[in-house]
Write a structure and sequence with these properties.
The protein is α+β, with helices and mostly antiparallel strands and 154 residues long. The protein is built from 4 helices and 6 strands. The chain has a single domain, classed as Nuclear Transport Factor 2, Chain: A, CATH 3.10.450. A hairpin with a 2-residue loop joins strand 5 and strand 6. The chain starts with a helix and ends with a helix. It comes from Salinimonas iocasae. Keywords: Signal. This is Protein with SnoaL 3 domain, NTF 2 superfamily.
């Protein structure tokens, strides 16, 4: 009887995590859609109030307010940014209150990019707590790229 209860509990946890993963996938898809459509209000509604956005430049570690200030002129002009998900992995913590993801993206401007981040569940809704956009550097050119960055820093 205990075994049956354990199996049922594990199945229930698995289905909760599958449901959470689907919800998180929708949040991330909406994030990219709202950005591409320059829908600032909807875009920022997906972040929790103390979220952090980390951009590709070393100087871009922004609070939500700082990120809104950066994005406002872009979105106000009717332009946004388009990143199309190509591949995504989502992991939900056992508590089902925290999740993290890695997604490979395509951008016409930058080519292959990577988004990583953390979501938290509050009042049965997943919100982005951290989003980090990076440009993955192939190992074959990493030294060239880092040499250029070092030269810029000096």
């Amino acid at each position: 009887m205990l075994r049956i209860a354990m199996v049922l509990l594990l199945l229930q946890i698995g289905s909760v995590h599958a449901s959470d993963k689907a919800e998180i996938g929708t949040v991330l898809d909406d994030l990219h859609r709202y950005a591409a459509n320059a829908n600032m209000k909807a875009y920022f509604s997906l972040y929790n109030e103390d979220a952090v956005f980390i951009g590709t430049d070393a100087s871009e570690t922004w609070t939500l307010e700082d990120f809104k200030q950066y994005a406002s002129p872009v979105f106000s002009s009717g332009k946004g940014w388009t990143y199309t998900p190509v591949e995504r992995q989502i992991t939900v913590a056992k508590s089902a209150q925290t999740a993290w993801f890695v997604e490979m993206l395509h951008s016409e401007t930058y080519g292959t990019t990577r988004g990583t981040g953390v979501l938290v569940k509050s009042e049965d809704q997943w919100k982005i707590a951290q989003y980090h956009l990076t440009i993955p550097i192939p190992n074959a050119i990493a030294r060239d790229v880092t040499s250029t960055i070092k030269a810029m820093d000096n």
